[in-house]
Amino acid sequence: MTAAAITVRDPDHAALRSREAARRGFAGLLVAALAVLVLAVAAPQPASAAADPGFVNWIKQFWPTAKANGISAATYNAAFAGVDRPDPDVLRLNAKQPEFTKSVGEYLASAVSDARVNEGRRKFAQWKPWLDRISTRFGVEPQILVAIWGVETSYGAVLENPKIVRSVVRSLATLAYAGGPRTDFGRTQLIAALTILQDHDVAPRGLTGSWAGAMGHTQFIPTSFLQYAVDMDGDGKRNIWTSVPDALATAANLLAKNGWRPGETWGYEVELPRGFNLALADEKTWRPISDWAKLGVRRTGARPFPRGTDKAKLILPAGARGPAFLTLINFDVIKRYNNSTSYAIAVGYLADRIVGVPPFRTPWPVDAHPLSRDQIVKLQQVLTARGFPVGAIDGKIGPGTRDAVRAYQLSAGLPPDGYPTVELLARLGG
């Protein structure tokens, strides 16, 4: 999940309580009571023989920041009870720079496997009464919610894996303590996690998630939980860890608040006519589907488009040799959940398969191996030196790099699909 906005306020330049604390009337606490709470935090806590003194000291030093954001000492003490050393797995994963990624085809093979499709159909039937209620309330189609659930946690199966699920407070404190690019993320999310505990949506023992703090059936980071979480089952708690209705409704709320269009799909697999101008597949140009049809773009399987007035973009996620898609606004809304083209296609495709839409017709190229991070950096450097600026040289394939690749391809008389390959890098002399 992408982070919702929240500001971590340090005590030297911020008010003593957050908006959430003020709303709950914490401003009326007596000074004497506050003093007792502060003493409770300052008091030495029992430490295990393997305690990390630096980490324990960091927890003590972070308390004023937590208090400045409206966290009570009781909440703070309960959250950090028994937490006296950083999570070694989080330290390892935080320091690891992923070198290789999967191609879209490789990713879809696992994310939308036959087993996951079949299990999704079972979950769809099992939870249909709740899904119908959620869909009526938020205007998001049930199959999309089940697909998000499937891609995020394999319908909750991941939550039963102790090698993956761990204490969110410890994980985020480890990220904040360790230093590096995720320090600010760790601090911000830790404050949000403590706020969740203070709101009594979950007990400290139940506040679990991934090493980076993604939580529950539908994997919300703490700030996004605070922004979107829903108590769908009416038990008084927003519980995305053990309440499937709450988790699915929370996902629906995120999509709805980010512009989901009820009754529209995410996109269509399409076929392009011979000689089609691939430069139009720039992932930015919106046209009514009827206009794309006039250019010869057809839905696969000779199926009609439901509405020619829907606006869509043309994308080639694996380049000219792979499938082509017209993606609608809902595709971009899915990317607000996870800003990845592969992820959005997986969710949309799994949702379609769950309700009986046939598989994609065009095969994914088996030899379309993504560039490594070092290769992407080299490509960005060479393109920039050749007069095709990519923007930031960051080892990531974003719109700027794709535009630069497309511009180079046009200048070299190559199909301008904007897709970076090892062959393209070699041609550039990289």
Automatic annotation (TrEMBL):
It comes from the Bacteria. GO terms for molecular function: peptidoglycan lytic transglycosylase activity. One of its GO terms (biological process) is peptidoglycan catabolic process. Gene3D superfamilies: 1.10.530.10, Bacterial muramidase, PGBD-like superfamily/PGBD. Residues 55-352 form the Transglycosylase SLT domain. PANTHER family: LYTIC MUREIN TRANSGLYCOSYLASE (PTHR30163:SF8), MEMBRANE-BOUND LYTIC MUREIN TRANSGLYCOSYLASE B (PTHR30163). This is Membrane-bound lytic murein transglycosylase B.
